[in-house]
Automatic annotation (TrEMBL):
It comes from Noviluteimonas gilva. Residues 149-296 form the Peptidase S54 rhomboid domain. Belongs to the peptidase S54 family. The chain crosses the membrane at residues 13-33, 161-178, 185-207, 213-231, 238-260, 280-297. GO terms for biological process: proteolysis. This is Rhomboid family intramembrane serine protease. It is a multi-pass membrane protein. One of its GO terms (molecular function) is serine-type endopeptidase activity. GO terms for cellular component: membrane. Keywords: Hydrolase, Membrane, Protease, Transmembrane, Transmembrane helix. It is found in: Membrane.
Length: 488
C-alpha cells in the first residue's frame, strides 16, 4: 500500500530549504562517510571466522545465551549449526550489535580459565579497533543500549542505495508540506525529535535482542504523523496505490494518520521476518502526531500555507460554476462569455461545448446552436461519460431531424464502440446513406456486432450482423457475418 500526499507543487516560493539540506546530509553520509563500509564489515567477519578469537568466543556465546534465558530462539539456531565456521559466522554477525555480550565477556566468567580470558582480551583489542574504524558500526542503533548519540546518528545512515533513494524521495515529498506549514526551525526540531522517538520505540520493542537499526524512515514517519495533525481537516490531494488500484483523490489530511499507522502495525504483526523496522515507523508516526497536535494547539502553524487560498496558491477557477449559475438565471450572454473562454482553453471538454450549444439554442440562435452541436459531437472525448453525453446530443439532433454530416457520425461511432457506448454507436450508424464507403460502414457494423457479443447482448449482436448482411452483402465483413449467424 502506498499513500502519498502530493498537494503542493515544488516551486521557488515553496522550496523547502531545510528538507533539501537534510537530503544533502544523508547523501553525503552515505557516499562519503559510509563509502566502503559494507566491504569492510564483510572483510572483518571473513577474518574473524577462522580466527582463534572466534574459537574462544563461540562457546562463550553459547554459555551467554543459556545464562540470558530469554534468547531461546538464538540458542536453538546456534545449536542447529553443525559446521564450526557457520557457528563462528553466527557469533561474529550477532556480536556486532549484541551490546550485552561484550560486558559479560569482560567479567571473565564465560571463559574456562584465566589464561583463556587473558588471550581473549589481547585478541579482542585488535578486533575492536577494526570495528570501531567503520562509521556505520560506530553510529548505528543497537538494541538493549541507550546511547543519545546513536539515537540521532543512526537516522542519517542507510544500508544501500535503494534504501537511501526511497527515504529521500519520501523526505522531499512530505518535507515540502511540513516545512512550509511549520517553518524551517520547527520542522528541523520535529525531524530530529521524531528520529529519537522512533528509535526509542525500536529499542523498547527489541530490548534484549541482538539487532541493530539505521535509516531516516523513522524520522520521516514522524514528519508524516506531524503532517496529519498540523494540516488536520484540510482536504489534501494524495496518490494511493493498493494492489492493482491507484488514483488521485482528495481527503482530510487527518484521515491519513489511521491509514498509515494501521498499515505499519499490520506489517509489524504479519511480517516479523522482514528487515524493515515497522515498530520504528509506528513509533515515529505517533511521536510526530503528538508534536503536530501540540504545535497546532499552540498556534505555531503557518495557516496561510495550509489554506487552499494561500497567497502562493493559484486562485480557484470557478468560471464553470459561475456559468452554470448564469444559465440558471437565464443570463445567457454572461454564461456564453465564460463558456467561450473555457472552450478556447480546453477544447477537449465536452461538457463546455454542450453548455455552449444549449446557451445558443435557448437564446434562439438556431444556426449557431447547430454549429456548436456539431463541434461538440466532433470532440475526441476522453472517457465513456463524455461519449454518452455526445450520444444523448446525437439522439436529440436526430429527433429534431437535424442534418449531421456522415463523417461526424462515423467518427462518433468509432469512439462510442471503443468506449463501449454501443447503443449510441448503433444510433449513429443507422441513418448512414450510400455516400459512405461500404467497406468503412461494414467494418463498423461488424466491430459493433462483436462488441455486443462480448458484452453478452446476443440479440443486439444478431441484429447488427443481419443489418450488415442486408445492407452490405458484397463486403468481406458480410461473409464473416453470415458465418457467425449460421454457426452461432
Amino acid at each position: 500500500m502506498l499513500l502519498l500526499p502530493l498537494h503542493r507543487p515544488l516551486t521557488r516560493a515553496t522550496f523547502p530549504v531545510v528538507t533539501a539540506l537534510l537530503v544533502l546530509i544523508n547523501v553525503f553520509v552515505f557516499f562519503g562517510l559510509q563509502a566502503g563500509d559494507q566491504a569492510r564489515v564483510q572483510e572483518a567477519l571473513t577474518d574473524y571466522i577462522p580466527s582463534r578469537l572466534a574459537e574462544i568466543e563461540a562457546p562463550a556465546y553459547e554459555r551467554w545465551l543459556i545464562e540470558r534465558g530469554g534468547r531461546a530462539e538464538d540458542l536453538a539456531e546456534f545449536r542447529a549449526l553443525r559446521d564450526e565456521d557457520a557457528r563462528h559466522a553466527f557469533v561474529g554477525q550477532h556480536t556486532l550489535v549484541d551490546r550485552e555480550f561484550e560486558p559479560a565477556l569482560r567479567t571473565g566468567r564465560l571463559f574456562p580459565d584465566a589464561s583463556t580470558f587473558d588471550e581473549w582480551r589481547r585478541l579482542r583489542a585488535g578486533y575492536d579497533a577494526t570495528l570501531s574504524s567503520i562509521p556505520t558500526l560506530r553510529y548505528l542503533l543497537r538494541a538493549s543500549e541507550f546511547d543519545p548519540v546513536r539515537l540521532v546518528s543512526s537516522a542519517f545512515l542507510h544500508a544501500d542505495f535503494g534504501h537511501l533513494f526511497g527515504n529521500m524521495l519520501f523526505l522531499m515529498i512530505i518535507g515540502l508540506l511540513v516545512e512550509g506549514a511549520l517553518g524551517p526551525w520547527r520542522f528541523l526540531a520535529v525531524y530530529l525529535l521524531g528520529a529519537v522517538g522512533a528509535n526509542l520505540a525500536s529499542i523498547a520493542f527489541h530490548w534484549g535482542d541482538a539487532t541493530g537499526g539505521l535509516g531516516a524512515s523513522g524520522a520521516i514517519a514522524a514528519l508524516m504523523g506531524c503532517f496529519c495533525l498540523v494540516w488536520g481537516t484540510q482536504p489534501v490531494r494524495f496518490f494511493y496505490w493498493i494492489g492493482v488500484w491507484f488514483d488521485y483523490v482528495r481527503a482530510p489530511a487527518l484521515w491519513l494518520f489511521p491509514a498509515w499507522l494501521g498499515w505499519e502495525l499490520f506489517n509489524l504483526l504479519v511480517r516479523d521476518d522482514s528487515n524493515v523496522a515497522f515498530e520504528a515507523h509506528a513509533g515515529g508516526l505517533v511521536c510526530g502526531a503528538l508534536m503536530g497536535a501540540a504545535l497546532a494547539a499552540t498556534g505555531q502553524v503557518r495557516t496561510a500555507f495550509i489554506r487552499d487560498a494561500a497567497p502562493d496558491a493559484p486562485a480557484k477557477d470557478d468560471r464553470w460554476e459561475r456559468a452554470q449559475r448564469h444559465i440558471g438565471r437565464m443570463q445567457l450572454a454572461e454564461a456564453d462569455a465564460l463558456l467561450t473562454a473555457l472552450a478556447a482553453e480546453a477544447p477537449w471538454r465536452v461538457d463546455v461545448q454542450l453548455a455552449r450549444y444549449r446557451v445558443a439554442r435557448n437564446g434562439g440562435r438556431a444556426e449557431q446552436a447547430t454549429a456548436r452541436a456539431l463541434q461538440a459531437l466532433s470532440i475526441e472525448a476522453p472517457d465513456a461519460n463524455s461519449v454518452r453525453a455526445q450520444g444523448e446530443l446525437l439522439a436529440e439532433l436526430d429527433a429534431q431531424a437535424s442534418a449531421i454530416p456522415s463523417d461526424v457520425r462515423l467518427s462518433f461511432a468509432r469512439r462510442a464502440i471503443a468506449f463501449g457506448v454501443l447503443d449510441a454507436a448503433e444510433r449513429a450508424l443507422q441513418p448512414l446513406t450510400a455516400d459512405v464507403a461500404p467497406d468503412t460502414a461494414s467494418q463498423l457494423w461488424f466491430d459493433l456486432a462483436l462488441r455486443h457479443r462480448d458484452a453478452g447482448a446476443q440479440a443486439a449482436h444478431v441484429r447488427c450482423l443481419r443489418h450488415l448482411t442486408e445492407r452490405h452483402p458484397q463486403q468481406p465483413q458480410a461473409v464473416k457475418a453470415r458465418f457467425l449467424l449460421e454457426n452461432g
